[in-house]
Each structure stands twice: as structure tokens, then as C-alpha cells.
Amino acid sequence: MKKIFLAVLFTTTCAANTTIPENFDDWVVCHSCSQSTSILCQGYYKPLPLPQLNGQSNSQPIKVTSDSANFVAKGTSVFTGNVIATQGDKVIHADKATVVHNSVTGELETITAYGTVKIMQPGMRVDGSKAIAYVTQDKQTIDSAVYRLYDRHARGVANSVIITGQNNMQLSQSTYTTCAPDSNAWYLKASSTEFDKVSGRGEAWHAKMYAKDVPIFYWPYINFPIDKRRQTGFLMPEFQNSSLDGKTLIVPYYLNLAPNYDATVTTNYMSLRSFKFDTIFRYLTRTSSGALNFDFLPYDREYRALRNDAYADQQFMQSTDTGDVLRRNDLKNSNFRYRIAAKNTSYFGNNILFTLNYTDASDGNYLYDFRPSSASYVTDKDSTIYALQNAGLQYFNRFGSAKVQVERYQVFHVINGPSGTEQLTKLPAIYLNSANYQLPKGFEALINANYNNFRPNVIPDNNTSLSYGERFYGRAGLSYPIVNPGWFIVPRVQVNFVAYDHLNISSSDLASGVSPYHTSLAIPMYDLKTGLIFERSMCFRKTEMIQTLEPMLYYLYVPEKNQNNLPNFDSGLMTFDYNQVFRDNRYTGYDYVNDVNQLSIGIASRFYSGKTGAEQGMIGIGRIKYFRNQLLPIDQELDNTETNWSPYAFVAKLHLSPDYDIEANIVSSENVTETASFQVQYHPTPLRIINFSYQYVKDAEPDDLTGLLNSNLSQISASTAWQVSVPWRILGKINYDLRFHRYLETLAGLEYQTCCTALRVMWGRTWMPELNTSHGHNNVFRLSFIFKGFAGIGNADDSYIASVIPGYVGGVR
User: Distance between CA atoms of 332 and 57, rounded to whole angstroms?
Assistant: First the structure.
């Protein structure tokens, strides 16, 4: 039997609440709120306080208070003026109420509220003109209702609302939106709607989507989220228009399969190609994480036309040019195109790590045509695409690590683009790296070794242009570091050993003197690094800082050994910069080491926060004095055999102010600048950022007529994502080639964002000289319109903008 406590208050000064529900007395207008959502909405909901709950709400006694009452213990009681009925943390406000008790048992059965009615419980409020609370059924019905779902920042109106318990609402002839009370940017209007807090879903029948009171879509039935849990359902679509694909409609569907794995299936319709389906499956377990991708086109009109043009080109089909042969090999006769990708990281215990990274595609043009967002493939300066395919097993402990790996880069030869260069695979590669051993008397030792079995992707005939075979590499070092406050000196001796076996040397390498037989070479290396560290306190813009001055010398001696007979499997010359001044080897890979006698001279100054000790900047300059020529063919090919001095290398990385980041690198000889780069970033707030950069490389680009590397790369870039007001942010980027006077990349966009909607419009143009359309440019138009709180956050594509505007923070929140 329900208990009822009555408190009858007679007063002549209290009047009934005359605030109409549409005024939203629980909405606080705020134009300078601290929370980002409140800023976008220009306000926030502040629910009226509810009583504290002790135990289950429906087991609590019911208390009714009013200005006056006519109470009947077994029958109908009438309460008038400021009626408040409470049960636990549930409250009913009304101007008038009738309370019905069973005429036999006296049990409370119903409470009927009239006038300005408010029904409130945690996370919910419903206002109306009349309400009936069926106490024994824990159900309430409200007529002419205006409701709020505070947890979802949602509201709406309905002809009637039925609330069952605290988890279910049924509405007839209702609307639903997450917009602020003064906005109807979008709303869903349905003949019947149901909200279920247990599942976190809403269902609507015969539903129309309105934008500014204009109907834009109809669903016979739709299911949508009403909380922030991940839910299966459609994400908001996106529209694109590009030179490569035509008009494209992108519709993603999200599958919440389990708390630790999910999938997204995206349907793309491209007017120039047809349908394309992108799928991604993600998983996270106690020991593993990763993702699987499978994208496919059952039929691609554009690729078929490109393939037919290639078949009709007799010169191309009969050409013996290596590039044309490789392109023909990657020209597939099937209309079915696909990409598969897998990425996995697994830990077995605390010491074993397994990694997998694999990408492959149906034909040479797939990755070039669609450029999927992935770190599993790389594009070189000639736009050649190499897809990474590797798997590795690593064991590590405090003594070092051991790793076994197989790896190759699948090269894709684009029909209407670059042909690429075949790469060697590693089947397998074994790496052993020791920790830095502390020996008696202050000595330190380090040992690294690896074995690589290099093979071409497909074993060619004896006229192959690739040399391959087995290589063993090892390096052991012993040092005696002496480190004291203000100075250090570190003498070191190393032995670099390399051996080759089971070699297959190409004819061109044989002609240059590379030995086809088993060969090995051990080279000792001696170096000495020493420096001073001066320190002083300083003040920059009223901020206490510590500045150091660090002059340093580095002497490196490697005896002359003939390395010209060694094959080159993975070595190349590093780009010269400030860090290169103090390295012990100027080559990548493990085939070659310096044959040098040189002294590096440099000085640097660092800046540290006086409070936290964090480094906030450094500037440095260095140069190398050569005491003899560089003898390796790789140096001679690049005309890098200067006998006296290296160029000056200058570096600056400054973060002296929270709003600015500055970085500069310059490599310059006496009268010639070899390379130069400069970047500055201004970011006063996360939603306001400006970038500017300049890059120069001497003799880095081929001449338009001769194709020789005798043209200087000279490019500038500027980009911004700048919030001009609370709802508006502009996006833009320009990348301009000063040498050839052309725009390499342009982007212009606009973001509009409120608390319930987000609109992003972007237009971009990218230089692709192999295209015949638009004078070698690919033009792309993107449109995203997002109804927040209705279908997730939509397909906002923040990753694309972040890749072209450094420091971009996603605007859709």
C-alpha cells in the first residue's frame, strides 16, 4: 500500500506558476561559457533540483503539498495551488491535482495534474497541460507535452507522452532535436516515437527530417542513439565532386559488434566509376589490437576506359621500355578492383611482441586512384606508390632485443603515371641489438648485428637489373664516457663488419666492380666527442628561463678501406643537416661506412623553462673539416667529394611563447645555399592556427626540357584554420611552386558549427601532371552536414584536414 503524507499550506501571497513550458525556465543563456558545448549553444540546461534518493524511487512514500486541499482517505482528494508531489527523486508540479485512493483498501491509485504541469526525474523533464500518474503501474501520461532529455541535450514536443518507470518514453505526433531552445536548425517529426534508456536508442515511425522547417528526408522507420554509447546505425552522409571520381555520395554504416570490436561499412556511389564499398573491422583485446580493411569495386567504368585506351595504344603495348613493361604487368583485365590491408600489434607476456602490416591491391592504379588513409603505403617524390608488407616477432629484455622479420614493398606501376622502381624483399631479416652494457672502471659496450636475405619480388633471369644475396652485419663498440658538470669527453672505438654470400650481381653492378663472390670487410672506427656546457638565468617576456651555451667538437677517423667491391642493397646518402654534423656514418642502411678523417665543429644554445625544466628551444650551427677525399662511388655519383669543408648547417627550434612555434634549417656553403626550410606556426587558441613554411633544395627537380636534376626546388606554403566567430571557422591552404610558377595544392573551406549542427564545405585542387583534365589538376569538392545527437558525429574527415593543415584540431565536437 502506498503511503501518502499531506501538507496543506494556506497562503494569500503565493500564486500558481504562470511560466509557460515553451519559455524553458531550465535554460540558462550564456554567451561566454567555459564549456565548449555551452559556448556553441549560447547557453546550457540547468535542471531544477530534485530530492535526494534513498533506495528505490518507486518504493518511497509519496508526499503531496499544496496551498489548499480537500482530503478524502478512501476516495478522491483535491489539491489546489502550487501542488508538488514527490516520490524519491521524482517530482510533479501542477496548479491543481486530484488524488484517487481505492475506496476499499485506501491504496493510492492515480494522481491527475492540471494546469501548468511539470514532471521531473533524473535526466528528464516533461511539461504539459494535463498529466496522470498511475502509481501502481509506475506510469505517467502527459498531454500537450514539451520534454527535455538532459543527458542527450535533446528536447521536443508531443501530443502525448507515456513514461514507464525511469527508462522508457512513448510519444505520439512528436518532434526531436538537440538544438538549443531558441533554434530549430533541424528536428525529426514522427507519428510515433519511443526512447529506451536501457538500450540507449530511439525509434521513430513515419519520420520526416526537417532543416529550418523544410522537410528534407523521410523514413518509414528509423533507429537513432539517445546517449553517447556506441550504437549500430547510419552515420551522416557526405557529398563530394572530383575530377577523378565525379559526383560522389558517401554513406557510412557503423556496426557496434561488441565492446572491444566494431566495423564500419561505407557505400560510395561515384558517377564516373559506379559503386565502391569500404569496410574496416577494428579489434582490441587484452593482448592485441589492430584493424582489417577490405575495399572493393565490383565494376569501375573509369578504369575500364583507361584499360581499353591502353590496349588500343599499339606503341604502349609493343614497347620494350622497362617502365612500360612494368605498367603492362600491373594492367589487370578484371573489372573487380580491391584493396586489402591488415595491421596488428600483439603482446605475448611482457617480453614478446608480434607486429603485422600488410597492404595489397588488385592493380597498379588502385592506391593511386583512391589514396586511402593509411600508413601502410608510401609515396615517393615521383608519386610512385610502395605498399608495405611485413611481419615481425620481437623479444626484448633489459639486456637488449632480438627480432625476426619478413618485409617487402609491393611496387605499383600506374598506367597513366609513374612506373616505380622494383624493391628487394627481406626473407628473412634478423636483428640483434644489445643494451648499453656498463662495464667495470667506467667503460660501456654496445653490440648490434643483423642478417638479411635479400631477394627480388620475383626471381628474374640472369639479366636482372637487381643485385641480391645474403648479408651479415655486425658492429661492436667500446667507450669510456667522462661526464662532469659543465663538460664531457667520450672516446670510443668501434669495429664495423659486413659479409656477403650467395650473391647474384646485376650486369651493371658487375661493370662497376662489385664482386659476385663471397666477400667480407672489417673496418675499425675511432671517434672522440667533447664539449662544454655553460649556463645562465635569463628572463624572456617576464618568463624565467635558463639558457645554455654548448660548444662541441667531434673527431671521427675511419681508415681507408676499399668498399667499391661491395654491393649496395639498402644504403643511401643522408640529407645533410645539423644532426648529420655529429653522426658517425653519413649513409643509411648497413652496406657502407664513412672512409673519413674529419673534425666536426659546432655550437648550440638551448632554452629551458625556469619552473618546469622543459626545453623550449635551441639554436645551433656546425660544420665539418675534411682531411681527405670521400672515396665511395655513391659520393662520386652525387658530386659530393669536397676535400676541405662541409657546408654550414644551421638549426633553430623555438617554442619560447605558448602561441608560436618556429623551426628553421639551413645548409649553406660559402656562396651557395644547398637547402633551406622555415616553418612558423601561430596558435593562440586550439581553434585558431596559422602556418607558413618555405622549402628550398638546390638541383632537386628535373628540368622541363632535359629531365636533368638542375632545377631548384623552391616552394612556399601557407595554411590556416581560424575561428572568426563562435559558429564560423575558415579553412585554407596554398602550396605554390616558385620555380615553375604553379599551384601544387590549394584548399578553401568553411566550417559552421552550433551545438546541434555542423556544416563543412571544402574545395581543393591538387597538381597531378599526368591527368588530362583541368590542365593537370584534380579538383575536389566536399560537403558534410552533421546533425549532432542524431547519427553520431557524421563523416567529418578530420584526418584529411589535419594532414594538409598542421596543428588542425577537429572542429566537430
Answer: 68
In the beta sheet, which residues pair with residue 78?
70, 98
Helices (H), 177-300: none
d(C-alpha 199, C-alpha 224), whole Å: 11
Report the alpha-carbon distance of residue 78 to residue 100 in Å, rounded.
9
| Res 329: pLDDT | 81
Contact yes or no for 681/661 (Cβ under 8 A): yes
Q: Is 7 helix (H, G, I), strand (E, B) or coil?
A: strand
For every residue of 341-390, DSSP letters joined together read EEEEEEEETTTEEEEEEEEEESSTTHHHHH--S-SSEEE-TT--EEEEEE
Distances (CA, A) of 136 to 102, 390, 572, 596, 640: 11, 66, 82, 93, 92
Residue partners of 465: CB distance under 8 A and separation at least 6: 322, 422, 506, 508
* CA–CA separation, 425 and 521 (whole Å): 23
pLDDT at 590: 94
At residue 671, the pLDDT reads 80
What does the CA dihedral 368, 373, 378, 379 come to, rounded to 10 degrees? Answer: 40
**Residue in the structure block whose three cell numbers are 656553403:** 669
Look up residue 271 and give its three cell numbers: 558517377
Neighbour-count burial of 35, counting CB atoms closer than 10 A to its CB (0-12 exposed, 13-18 middle, 19+ buried): exposed
Secondary structure of residue 667 in the 3-state scheme: strand
Residue ranges, the chain, pLDDT below 50: 1-21, 381, 459-463, 637-638, 703-708, 773-774, 792-795
Report residue 229 as a C-alpha cell. Answer: 554509447
pLDDT of residue 7: 36
φ and ψ at residue 19, rounded to 5 degrees: -70, 120
Q: Which three cell numbers stand for residue 69?
A: 486541499
Q: Residue 215: phi, psi to the nearest 5? A: -65, 135
Kindly state the helix (H) or strand (E) to which residue 142 belongs, with its residue range: strand 139-149
DSSP 432-486: EEE--EE-GGG-EEEEEEEEEEEEESS---TT-S--EEEEEEEEEEEE--EEETT
- pLDDT of 774 reads 47
Q: Are strands 62-66 and 4-8 parallel, antiparallel or unpaired?
A: parallel
As a whole number of angstroms, the distance between CA 402 and CA 396 comes to 6
**Which of 751, 659, 724, 768 lies closest to 242 in space, CA to CA?**
768
Max CA separation in the chain (angstroms):
114
Paired with 742 in beta bridges are: 737
Secondary structure of residue 21 in the 3-state scheme? helix
Give the pLDDT score at 35: 58
Please state, in angstroms and rounded to a whole number, the distance separating the CA atoms of residues 514 and 80: 105
pTM of the model: 0.79
In this structure, are strands 76-87 and 62-66 parallel, antiparallel, or unpaired?
A: antiparallel
Q: Cis peptide before 428, with omega less than 30 degrees from 0?
A: yes
Residue type, 400: G
Q: What is the DSSP letter of 805?
A: S
Q: What is the DSSP letter of 236?
A: P
In the prediction, which pLDDT does 758 show? 84
Q: What does the pLDDT read at residue 516?
A: 92
Q: What one-character-per-residue DSSP string does 214-226 give? A: EEEEEEEEEEEES
Rounded CA separation 234/221 (Å) = 13
